[in-house]
Amino acid sequence: AGSKLREVFDKINNLLSGKPVQTEGQTVSVTQHPQGLEFVCYKLAEKFVKHGEGEVSFHHDSAFPIAVVLSGIWELHPRVGDIFLAHLHKKCPYSVPFYPARKEGTSVEEYQRMLGYEVHDSKVEEQDHFLKRMSGMIRLYAAIIQLRWPYGNKQGAHPHGLSYGWRWLAQMLNLEPLADVTAMLLLDFLEVCGNALVKQYGIQLWKTMFFIQKYYIPRIEAVTSAGQMGCLSRLKSFVQKCLQEKEIPLPKGILTPSFWRT
């Protein structure tokens, strides 16, 4: 509910502003320790990324309430936004976007970690689980860049707005595609913020969609084996449908004005 979200936002904002906050039966304040504020900024940013790789990866709609709170906090407390990006880029290099190359002397295990895989006791996580986590983080990022906290003063620009999404898309299409990962990330990104991008960039975005269909999808196909076609097929039909209907649909779960009255 909108009212619940406001409560959460106010509590986080009060904590970061140095006000005493009630939690689990006790009162806490960042002023209780010289590094209190820095610690809270760090842990909070880390928590938002964890929401992306956990909650959002399983419930796509949850990207929007989480993102709108972070967007508002980022506006008032830029440090949280900076640390959030640092955590996000480390956990999901594709959010830069960047495909790390393996350097000489780097162990397989270390390289898997650089690519975003979780490695425990020399065991690398399953590909499906890895893709799900990356998908959740990209969806959260795509939601953040288009949302503003509705109760802010809106005087300045969005601290990390749609221009960053446009840049991400352009850079992504300049990279050599990877099997599985590239198709999934492009689809997630376009599903979540394609509608917002088309409103902002119009014909430029349609040119990009045409480029994806005509030139980039065949490049993804060239590196994709028969067993990895699922994501690619979904990306293909999404792009084709958008171009045919000349519109990118609103994402599922977007927060409507009526949400804030709940």
TrEMBL record:
Alphabetical GO biological process terms: poly(A)+ mRNA export from nucleus; protein transport
Keyword Coiled coil: yes
A GO term for molecular function: phospholipid binding
Protein origin, superkingdom: Eukaryota
Subcellular location(s) of the protein: Cytoplasm; Nucleus, Nuclear pore complex
One GO CC annotation: cytoplasm
Protein name per UniProt: mRNA export factor GLE1
Name of the coding gene: Gle1
